[in-house]
Structure formats: structure tokens, C-alpha cells
Amino acid sequence: MYYCKIFFFFERLKKICFSLEDILINFKPSELIIERVFISNNKKSNIELNQVSGAIIFIAISNYLSVFEYNVSKVRKSVFIKGNVSKKYVNYMIRKILNLNFFDLKYDESDALALALAHYYKFNKNKKN
Predict the structure, then answer these.
(1) Secondary structure class of 98 (helix, strand, coil)
(2) What is the pLDDT of residue 126?
(3) How would DSSP label each residue in 105-128?
(4) Can you tell me whether residue 81 is helix, strand or coil?
(5) Nearest alpha carbon to residue 37 among 57, 13, 7
(6) Contact partners, residue 22, CB within 8 Å, separation at least 6
(7) What burial class does residue 60 get, using C-beta atoms within 10 Å of its C-beta: 0-12 exposed, 13-18 middle, 19+ buried?
(8) Residue 31 is inside which H or E element, if any?
């Protein structure tokens, strides 16, 4: 039973890695922005999230991408002023800021867009100085 769960985790990890490589080939980004892994009480989840994060970072680095990692609360502070806002609020504000009111964004999608916005804001702030 345990072997089977590990096998399925590695199959999902392989799918993530191959999908990322397809994205890199098709879109040729120069940077990868990743959310710092949240530490929870569930040790198994922490280990798996760190393995996925490590694999993603390895693929990015081996494809010569610059990698930036951001803490969730810092992302939310840079985009929404407060760091402890709900996923629902993030979703609402991202749709407003980016004028995506007619799109039904999932919470993961709005979180990813908030991460991209935080990186954009940081990059432009540093560029002006």
C-alpha cells in the first residue's frame, strides 16, 4: 500500500516536471518565480512540497533561468498592503487590478498572478533606483 502511494507521488512529480519543461520550450521564459513552501504540521505534506519545489527549481536552474522565491505574506503585503488577507480577497483584488472581472479565476490562479505582480513591482522598484 505504501509503495503504491510513493509510486503515484513520483508519477505526479514526473508529470509536473515534464509539463514545466514543455512550458520552458514553448514560451522560453528567462525567470521562474516560486512561492516559498509553507510549513504545516503535516510532515508528509512538507516533505512532498519540498521535493516538488526542489525539482522545479532544479529544472529552472538547469535551463539557465533566474529563480526568485517569495514568501506568501510578503507577496500579499506588496500587492494588497496587508499580508494576512484571505484567498477570496486575493482572488477578488487580482481580478480588479488586472481587469479580469469577467474571468472565473481559481484561487491557485489568482495566487500565481499575485506572485507575478509582486515580482513585477519589486523589479520595477529596483529598476528605478
Answers:
(1) coil
(2) 58
(3) --HHHHHHHHHHHHHHHHHHHHHH
(4) coil
(5) 57
(6) none
(7) buried
(8) strand 31-35
Quick one: pLDDT at residue 127?
Answer: 59
What is the per-residue pLDDT across 83-108, written as a single tens digit (0 to 9) for each? 788 999 999 999 999 999 888 999 99
Three cell numbers, residue 69: 522565491
10 Å CB burial of residue 91 (0-12, 13-18, 19+) is: buried
Q: Alpha-carbon distance 5 to 43, whole Å?
A: 15
**28-to-31, 77, 85, 114 alpha-carbon distances in Å:** 9, 29, 33, 21
The residue among 90, 128, 82, 84 whose CA lies nearest residue 111 is 90
Which segments of the chain does DSSP mark as H helices, in order? 2-27, 43-62, 72-80, 87-97, 107-128
pTM of the predicted protein model: 0.83
What is the percent of the chain with per-residue pLDDT over 70, rounded to a whole number? 94
Residue type at 86? S
Q: Which of 75, 81, 67, 63 is CA-nearest to residue 118?
A: 75
